[in-house]
Amino acid sequence: MTNPPENIICSWSGGKDSCFALMTAVKSGHKPVALLNVLNENGQISRSHGLPPQILQQQAAALGLPVLLQPSTWQAYESHFVASLRQLKSAHNATAAVFGDIDLQPHRDWEEKVCAAAGLKTLLPLWQQERKMLVYRMLEQGLKCRIVSCNDTLGPDFLGREMDDVLIADLEAAGVDVCGENGEFHTLVTDCPLFSVPVQLPPSGKVQHENYHFLQWKL
């Protein structure tokens, strides 16, 4: 690699983009030292993906990495994120943070801002890659994931479906970006080459909050 290896914190959603960003960074020679995930204010589920701590901790254990689960309101999100980055930097001698964003410039701007505040470099290994090609690369490289939340355009029938050729075709037929980069859906990674064991998912039901649908985990 052209740049020296970094000790990296992964901004970990539990979904395909953050996981593939981590996989790509590791393949480039970087060393992961910790994961960071922001939960809702009561600490019961993660923001956007709706994942309980137990599933995120399973993923972290499969990766062999510590995970910091930080409860936060949306209002305090940025300050909590910066403080968490600083905490992990200090505890694990981190030098950079890796993010799974692909092409949304405001997201990149924010990530560079919070990393600068924490004294870390920003790595976006998936940046400006073509979205559909990226999803196929994820599958080819052994990443397995399923939809855990989605908007009304897709509806509850898409919840729980595993990412494969059929799902990609169905997403396109519904007029939805196959990467979900615009927030149409979110995924949960159940296995990948970095995992020592697959994630064992608890039973789940389905629940709707406003115009968004989520798997509700029965723990």
UniProtKB/TrEMBL annotation:
Domain Diphthamide synthase: 9-216
Domain of life per record: Bacteria
UniProt keyword terms in alphabetical order: Ligase
InterPro entries: Diphthami_syn_dom, DPH6/MJ0570, Rossmann-like_a/b/a_fold
Molecular functions per Gene Ontology: diphthine-ammonia ligase activity
Keyword flag Ligase: yes
Pfam families, per the entry: Diphthami_syn_2
Enzyme class, first EC level, given as a word: ligase
EC number, UniProt record: 6.3.1.14
Matching CDD domains: AANH_PF0828-like
UniProt cross-references to NCBIfam families, sorted A to Z: MJ0570_dom (TIGR00290)
Protein name: Diphthine--ammonia ligase
